[in-house]
Amino acid sequence: MRDLPIPLLRTFVVVAETLNLTVAAGRLHRAPSTISMQLSRLEGLVSTDLLERGQYGVRLTPAGDLLRSHAQLLLNQHDRILGSFLNAEIGGKVRFGTHDQYATRSLPPLLETFVLNYPEVRLEVQCDHRPQQLVSLLQQGKLDLALVEMPLLSTGGTHLGRDELVWVRSPLHSTHMREPLPLAVFVDGCYHRDMALQVLEQWQKPCRIAFTSQSRAGVLAAVRAGIGVGVIPRSTLEEGLVVEDSLPPLPKTDTTLFVAEQVTEASFRLAQIIRESPQFSCAGQDMARSRLPIE
Question: Nearest CA to 237 among 67, 53, 105, 41?
Answer without folding.
Answer: 105
